[in-house]
Design goal:
single chain, six-stranded mixed β-sheet
């Protein structure tokens, strides 16, 4: 009879430590009598894995009870336009757009008797409007310093004029003959909510099965029931989806094949899409050197000056941009040229060297800087940015703090709201901000299905008011 020798353990001539002296539970399984040293707790190797919380810091949440939300934003107070020089020898110019690039031809607000500043071709002149017929984009503006615009070095075909109304001049004892009153302009915007869903299912048998790994989760799940972890991670992931969708979503273009179906899917405007469409973008502050970064940051301030000039702003940036800003600010420190600055305020050498900045003031603006996990984590935007083309790698966003005053067309009144806020679908009987319900026969039975089904649902959209005060760093 043949005898098969055991291969798991081999005797050695000396008592010594060899690679085959150790019990390998992965290879041998539980088919041996020795108890392994089992570390039951699951190691949290990725730290806090959730990224939600950004919108909670910068905005608010409000209920809505319609398929869309419509809001109106104020126009500029002063009259400023872009124009073309039609005939410099006759001082006639054509109004084409307002100063923000919105088409304004026959509906401009310039009237006879208005004093205007005209710039273009390297010169600026003061002029008086003598002809501005209603419903006509052509006006005549005679310069104070010469007979016609041609005498002031303006030329026909100059298509980059700027015209600013700064006052008016009229003769004694004359009635005002402007012919029309100026009415305020406003711009309406709209967005619609999207419905987000997710789902988790576990059989009745697995729901009652004890595991040997002690699980833990972001929502406080703990124990030896594996389905608790799976359900908890599905919930945490869905909560992140409700925020990520408000950041990344965009409306379907007219050419998109998503449109036209019976399902009514059209997308929604997220934060990044709103800033790209109505806000500003900058490719500056990349860490080339402190002087260049400072000049590029000042260019951002100049863009803010042209718009709302909101004093307090929040910077949410990735790691590289955060370090670039730290280096930029450190270079401006009075100790930066000949040494280092210890501590924060008392300049003590015994304190740890602090090279990070969470808040600073430049010009008339205050900035509060925070690292944005969403842009750093490899499993979220951080991984996409690593593979994105130049200009599509989102490095950060500048968001104004405080509130804006807008006219709500559904409520019919002016309201003060945060610049950024989430609208969720709700009524007196139903709230779809964050719905969770359980079906099946596990626990309290609701059906004859031998499983537990956990459903998640949310219906929401983002309202980005005053996007001209936002800046996207890409």
């Amino acid at each position: 009879m043949a005898i098969t020798a055991r291969t798991s353990f081999q005797a050695a001539p000396l008592q010594q430590t060899l690679s085959d002296n150790y019990l390998d539970i992965q290879t041998n399984g539980w088919a041996q009598q020795y108890l392994p040293d089992l570390m039951e707790a699951e190691a949290e190797v990725y730290g806090k894995r959730t990224i939600s919380g950004f919108l909670g810091q910068v905005g608010a949440e409000e209920a809505m009870s319609a398929d869309q939300v419509i809001w109106s934003e104020q126009g500029r107070l002063h009259l400023s336009y872009r124009a073309d020089c039609l005939d410099a020898s006759a001082s006639t110019i054509n109004i084409t757009h307002d100063i923000d690039g919105v088409a304004r031809t026959t509906d401009h607000g310039i009237r006879v008797g208005d004093q205007v500043l005209i710039s273009g071709g390297g010169q600026t002149v003061t002029a008086l409007v003598t002809v501005a017929a209603a419903g006509n984009q052509t006006i005549t503006a005679l310069p104070y310093g010469g007979a016609h615009l041609s005498d002031m070095n303006f030329a026909d075909g100059d298509n980059d004029l700027r015209v600013l109304v700064f006052g008016s001049e009229h003769s004694k004892g004359t009635a005002y003959n402007g012919g029309r009153a100026n009415k305020p302009n406003f711009t309406s915007f709209t967005n619609k909510p999207i419905i987000l869903k997710d789902y988790y299912e576990v059989s009745g048998s697995d729901a009652s099965q004890i595991g040997w790994v002690e699980v833990s989760g972001e929502d406080g799940q703990a124990g030896y029931l594996w389905y608790l972890k799976a359900e908890g991670e599905t919930r945490s992931r869905f909560m992140d989806y409700t925020e990520m969708s408000m950041i990344e979503s965009e409306k379907a273009a007219d050419s998109s094949t998503i449109l036209g179906g019976a399902n009514g899917l059209v997308g929604t405007e997220g934060l990044f899409a709103a800033i790209k469409s109505r806000g500003h973008q900058s490719s500056g502050v990349t860490g080339v050197n402190a002087a260049t970064d400072l000049a590029e940051f000042d260019a951002i301030l100049a863009e803010f000056d042209k718009n709302g000039a909101i004093e307090e702003n929040m910077l949410f940036v990735n790691r590289a941009t955060s370090l670039a800003i730290d280096d930029m600010l450190a270079s401006m420190n009075s100790y930066g040229a000949g040494g280092t600055s210890y501590g924060v305020f008392d300049n003590s050498e015994d304190m740890a060297l602090n090279l990070g900045f969470s808040g600073f003031r430049r010009g008339s603006y205050d900035f509060y800087k925070s690292d944005w996990k969403y842009l750093n984590d490899l499993a979220t935007r951080g991984g996409i940015n690593a593979n994105a083309t130049a200009g599509e790698d989102i490095r950060g966003v500048i968001i104004p703090a405080g509130v804006s005053s807008v006219y709500d067309e559904q409520l019919g009144k002016n309201l003060k709201r945060p610049f950024l806020h989430v609208r969720f679908r709700a009524s007196q009987t139903e709230s779809r901000k964050m719905k969770t319900w359980i079906t099946g026969s596990v626990g309290a039975a609701t059906s004859d299905l031998d499983a537990m089904q956990v459903n998640f649902l949310s219906e929401r959209c983002l309202v980005t008011q005053g996007a001209n005060n936002f800046m996207l760093l890409n």
